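Annotators were shown the component list below and the corresponding predicted structure, then asked to write short factual statements about the assembly.
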Amino acid sequence: MYKILMVNVDEICLKGRNRDTFWNKLDAHIRSVLKVYQFSPTSKYKCYRDDLRYIIEIFGDDYFNQNTLDALVKIPGIYSILLARKTALDFEKLVQEVFVELDELKEKGLFGQKIKTFKVNTKRAYKRFSMDSNGISRELGHLILERYNSKSEVIKVDLHNPELVILVRVLSGGIYFSTKTLYGIGGLPTGVSGRVLTLLSGGFDSPVASYLMFKRGIEQSFIFFHAYPFVANEVVDKVIEIVKKLAPYQSRSILYVVPFGDIQGSIAKICKPEYRTMLFRRYMIECATILAREIEAEALVTGDSIGQVASQTLSNLALIDRGSEISIFRPLIGFNKLEIINLARKIGTFDISVIPQDDACTLLAYKHPVTKPYRDYWDKFNSSTEDEMNVKLKECLQNSRIMRVDWRGNVYNVNNVNCSNVAETIIQEKLK
Ligand code: ATP
Ligand code: MG
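Structure shown to annotators:
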């Protein structure tokens, strides 16, 4: 039951004169979470900065609820959140309040069992306070030992690897202390680094790639190429579920589901079979580039990792890049599959990605896809189909299904299939 959160920021600390821009983005994101989850009519909250810390205090009968905490730890830019209590600038009062909190742990039978070692870590930003940091840590540590150490419940100070850390922060407005820290995802606040369009498939990789971009303060829209009728509609539900897991990292996510089966079918009919997967990828990139331009996304993001599959050899990636005039970011390029899977578990997309799905690239793929493509064949194929493909790509974009997912995971259909003009829809969406 906490009424104070002390937010420690990550890379905002490294910023210079433009630091306020970063703070403002973070502040807006935090406030949007509080607005939805801390809505008790009897409570009021105050958010303010104290030097490099951001403090949220609730007044009245309300406490921070679990939904708020779960949402706050996903906000990019936050390094950690201390669930804190506050006392006046008075050491005696601090000791009393710390004892209240530690008494709760004692009542739960934690001392001497789960908690055998502890340390006090103090930082004093308010230099006029009568005791210095070391003095506070030493004196408080001593009083804790006196009160809680006994023959049956032995506890000791361990400065290197303690089981309980009591953080004390002396600021000008009071002394804050905390025994519980939640860790965030760090990085930069959402929106400070621009916007990209992320190519999301139902697999393990692309959601993890997206998560890594969120950490860098990037806003994202998502595009999924649906190979209907080669694959069923269920795969779209799977991708929506994945977007719901990614949505909490920003305030609003848009997913474009592009009907791509027709294009894949016609490519498969006319190209050499070993080039199919590569050509599917190439046209996905070209189509995503057209959309990115319309929605003012500055780059594309994919879940490629070098050598993972045949389409991800150096030569093939270089060739695919030629289908796009804008940058393609591949944050997983040097990741091993196991590292990707571990991150997928951490962000909660593993259980969705693991569900088997039909994949047109696999269904239509050739057993031995090309790994070192011939430029001549590639260029000839592309120039002979250019006009036809241009028309087809625009057509399939116009037939996209567009969905908006808010950060709580609610999904809204912006427009159903057969919308006549994607760009227009997006503009209307922006005006809302
Ligand atoms: P993932 O890489 O997400 O696990 P995957 O392994 O099935 O899915 P790859 O063949 O590795 O996909 O494709 C490489 C990248 O190309 C994906 O990470 C994704 O960014 C993009 N991609 C592939 N298929 C699609 C699709 N149907 N829609 C959107 N993007 C796709
Ligand atoms: Mg992959």
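Statements collected:
1. Residues 203, 205, 303, 308 surround magnesium ion (ligand 2) (CB under 6 Å).
2. The two ends are 38 Å apart (CA to CA).
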